[in-house]
Write a structure and sequence with these properties.
six-stranded mixed sheet; Rossmann fold; globular; disordered N terminus; 421 residues
């Protein structure tokens, strides 16, 4: 199967606009014996010229050390999608209810203050709607997931806490478990990919977790983690198939409703899916007319494709620099909730995400990592649908390296140069 990609970058018709007509695809190295198994981004430009070539070069220069999102090549002849089974799928989990999220709030707010919902006048002007930013990057770990970690840890039995917990993460989920484990005095082991964001790895260790770096990406780290949990009898915490985790992160959606009762659209980044699930449960309970829209990276659209095809899929190759939304496997519980509670899923390119990181900083004074900027990238794709509406963009995290920010500025500058020329 050919995975869908973002076929063009949407026009941004302000003084910061761009209209680079390009498609980005993966040229994965298929030779299993090659020493260089890294995917290469290839730009197929509809027009030639030095500026478009410069944009392509900048996109291809994404710094490698921080990007666990990459998945190395697929062997020739291998199927690119297949139905999969994974941990937790054998037992059917019940999704959390709206009441569960209300119960979670009573616990979460004991330890974490509500994050602000900020109007963004300049972004509103550019997009033709009222934009509000839900600033989850202001959490103690710099990401929304800490809500789920705190609530889940509060629900563990004494016996489970005594055994300790283990989980797999590209960084933000791991930080949430590390933070909550320290809060409740529980031993935590975090498995992360070898190329994980160094800021996130350092933060997990500062919080007292034991960090094991293994595997080329999140899903390989997850498999090693599951094996460790089974061998040592630790409480394995899945990054998505955990009702209490979803209930905990859903508390930010309650805060959105309370701060903006007239909200009409909420756009949420999707990695494993806990955030969009919690949002969907809250919004559709309060008012089924509120639109909940997820966003994934076009280079790793496994949740989008699983949602579209109605079955669990595994992505065998793919790439995004935004490690917070990089996963190759769709999980049963979130996908079930998404199919019931989410109206649409939008795919955005890495270039759009990088530009949105810079635009959030410039127009909203918000520092966002790639996943945290994905909702703004989706808003530009949906601008005609959003016109005149009250729209909340969930800035899911702000754990970004300086190296990544510099690269994002290079992308922004190169693509703006194309407009001026």
């Amino acid at each position: 199967m050919r995975w869908p990609v973002a076929n063009s970058v949407p026009d941004r018709t302000s003084d910061r606009c761009y209209s680079i007509k390009r498609t980005t695809r993966l040229a994965a190295v298929a030779n299993a014996g090659s020493n260089d198994r890294s995917p290469t981004l290839v730009a197929d430009c509809e027009a030639s010229g030095p500026t478009l070539e410069r944009v392509a070069r900048v996109m291809d220069s994404v710094p490698g050390a921080s990007y666990a999102g990459m998945v190395h090549g697929v062997r020739s002849g291998e199927a690119r999608d297949r139905q999969v089974r994974e941990a937790g799928e054998g037992r059917r989990l019940e999704p959390p209810t709206f009441r569960d999220i209300l119960r979670a709030r009573a616990v979460v707010h004991r330890y974490l203050p509500a994050t602000p919902l900020l109007p963004a006048p300049l972004l509103s002007e550019r997009l033709g709607c009222q934009i509000y930013l839900k600033c989850e990057q202001m959490q103690p770990i710099g990401a929304f997931k800490v809500r789920g970690g705190v609530y889940l840890m509060s629900r563990l039995s004494e016996e489970e806490r005594a055994r300790g917990v283990v989980t797999a993460s590209t960084g933000n989920h791991g930080q949430s478990i590390a933070y909550a484990a320290r809060l409740f005095g529980v031993r935590a082991i975090i498995y992360a990919p070898e190329g994980a964001n160094p800021l996130k790895v350092a933060a997990m260790r500062r919080l007292g977790a034991e960090v094991v770096l293994t595997g080329r990406d999140f899903d390989e780290a997850r498999l090693a983690c599951e094996a460790h949990a089974a061998a040592e009898g630790l409480r394995y915490i899945h990054s998505a198939n955990e009702p209490d985790l979803i209930a905990g992160v859903g508390t930010y959606a309650l805060e959105i409703i309370e701060a903006l009762p007239d909200v009409e659209v909420v756009i949420v980044p999707i990695g494993a899916g806990s955030g969009v699930c919690g949002t969907g449960i809250v919004m559709k309970t309060v008012d089924p007319g509120i639109r909940v829209i997820g966003v994934q990276a076009a280079g790793m659209p496994v949740v989008y494709e699983s949602w579209r095809q109605g079955k669990l899929l595994e992505l065998r190759d793919g790439y995004t620099f935004a490690e917070g939304i990089a996963t190759r496997v769709a999980f049963e519980l979130p996908l079930r909730i998404i199919r019931e509670r989410v109206d649409d899923i939008v795919l955005v390119s890495d270039e759009e995400i990088a530009r949105s990181m810079v635009e959030l900083l410039e127009a909203g004074r918000v520092v966002a990592e790639g996943a945290g900027a994905a909702a703004l990238a989706a808003a530009y794709r949906l601008r005609d649908q959003l016109r005149g509406k009250n729209v909340v963009l969930v800035v899911s995290g702000g754990n970004v390296t300086l190296e990544t920010l510099r690269w994002a500025f290079d992308v922004f500058t190169a693509s703006n140069s194309e407009v001026s020329e």
